[in-house]
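Moderator note: this is an archived Q&A kept for reference. The question asked for a predicted structure of one protein chain; the sequence and the answer are reproduced below.
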Amino acid sequence: MKTYNHNNYHSGINWVPPASLFRGEDAAVLTARKAVLEAARAKNPRRWINLNFSSLSHNKRVLSKRGPLG
């Protein structure tokens, strides 16, 4: 389970690992990801005409009833 929760990115939680979401690190990951994408967009704006970064919002906290993710 440790590998699954720490190394697998999930579409349902904005492509962050479940362990990062549980520890509250998802906001920092998404903020950093958004900054990288905005820098790439500024460098070559013609490549990024129709991309909307609003989908990189913070996840809702979803915690397992079983406790911390292993």
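Archived answer notes: Residues 2-51 form one domain.
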